[in-house]
């Protein structure tokens, strides 16, 4: 056990009194069958911000229950800094970092597109030995697969968000459930350049409806909504990203159809 870690049963000092200067008091569970992950992250975050951590461990469930009753808190871990109770891990993140659980962010989309771009480059260099227009095509198709998988991960949450703005889904609800399957399937076929006669029209259809829906909701109706492009529950704002997603699909589908017709 680290020298700054003690069992709760061995502690007598009030946390508000002990939490002074750069010393933070942390209460967390370390039961025989459960080592609290949030408590471990809270300890690491405090250490990374230069705090000396007075780390107090619960070894038995009755100790946890008694602590919750005494301080009227719903969960552990709990942290004290400068004589004041901060709260749990999320509250600690908000205090010590720029974390805001309600803030909109493009971070999930940036990560997803970065992975898609890296995959497209790897495919191009590995199979073609060069970077070409096919690299862009693979970037779009792999992005479709990844975006579709994010939607399928929690399809109920996705459909709830999707129904806020998609024109076709608002008239026919099952379309909201069909959409991510079509997007994922079309992306897979486009990546392998298979069944273009099926994949391209399917992608063109959902992308056209999607682009029109986003444009109407954001640029005509001026609504501030969250985008369902990376699945439900994400705090990505609806607008440029979702419109770009649909325009990329439209462009890819049109190019593939032209090539198919041209023979």
Explain this structure to me?
With 263 residues, this protein is an alpha/beta fold. It folds into two domains: 5-96, Glutaredoxin (3-Layer(aba) Sandwich), CATH 3.40.30; 107-262. It is 60% helix and 11% strand. The protein has helices spanning 15-18, 37-48, 61-71, 89-96, 107-128, 133-153, 155-162, 167-171, 174-191, 196-220, 240-262, and strands spanning 5-7, 23-31, 34-35, 52-58, 78-81, 84-87. Strands 1, 2, 3, 4, 5 and 6 form a six-stranded mixed β-sheet that branches. A hairpin with a 2-residue loop joins strand 5 and strand 6. It is elongated and about 80 Å long.
Layout: helices, strands, pairs:
Blueprint: E1 5-7, H1 15-18, E2 23-31, E3 34-35, H2 37-48, E4 52-58, H3 61-71, E5 78-81, E6 84-87, H4 89-96, H5 107-128, H6 133-153, H7 155-162, H8 167-171, H9 174-191, H10 196-220, H11 240-262
Parallel strand pairs: 1-4, 2-4
Antiparallel strand pairs: 2-3, 2-5, 5-6
Helix pairs in contact: 2-4, 5-6, 6-9, 6-11, 9-10, 10-11
**What is the number of domains?**
2
Task: Please write the string of helix (H) and strand (E) elements.
Answer: EHEEHEHEEHHHHHHHH
Class computed from helices, strands and strand pairing? alpha/beta
Q: What's the Cα radius of gyration?
A: 25 Å
Whole-number mean pLDDT: 93
N- and C-termini, Cα separation = 71 Å
Low-confidence stretches: none
Report the sheet with the most strands, covering strand number, pairing sense and barrel closure.
6 strands, mixed
Can you give the helix content as a percent range? Answer: 55-70%
Q: How many runs of DSSP E, i.e. beta strands?
A: 6
- Described by the principal axes of the CA atoms, the overall outline is elongated
Number of helices: 11
Strand content: 5-15%
């Amino acid at each position: 056990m680290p020298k700054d870690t003690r069992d709760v049963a061995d502690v007598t000092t009030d946390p508000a009194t002990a939490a002074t200067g750069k010393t933070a008091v942390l209460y967390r569970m370390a039961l025989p069958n459960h080592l609290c992950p949030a408590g471990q992250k809270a300890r690491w975050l405090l250490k990374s911000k230069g705090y000396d951590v007075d780390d107090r461990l619960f070894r038995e469930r009755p100790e946890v229950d008694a602590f919750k009753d005494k301080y009227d808190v719903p969960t552990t871990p709990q942290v004290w800094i400068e004589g004041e109770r901060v709260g749990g891990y999320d509250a600690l993140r908000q205090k010590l970092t720029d974390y805001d659980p309600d803030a909109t962010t493009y971070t999930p989309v940036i990560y997803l597109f970065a992975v898609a771009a890296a995959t497209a480059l790897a495919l191009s260099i590995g199979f073609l030995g060069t970077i070409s227009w096919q690299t862009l095509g693979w970037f779009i198709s792999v992005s479709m697969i990844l975006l579709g998988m994010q939607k399928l991960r929690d399809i109920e949450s996705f459909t709830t968000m999707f129904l806020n703005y998609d024109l076709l889904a608002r008239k026919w609800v099952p379309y909201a459930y069909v959409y991510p399957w079509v997007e994922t399937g079309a992306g897979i076929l486009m990546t392998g350049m298979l069944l273009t006669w099926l994949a391209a029209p399917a992608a063109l259809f959902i992308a056209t409806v999607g682009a029109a829906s986003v444009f109407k909701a954001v640029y005509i109706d001026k609504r501030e909504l969250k985008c369902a492009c990376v699945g439900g529950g994400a705090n990505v704002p609806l607008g440029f990203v979702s419109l770009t997603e649909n325009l990329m699909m439209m462009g890819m589908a049109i190019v593939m159809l032209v090539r198919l017709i041209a023979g």
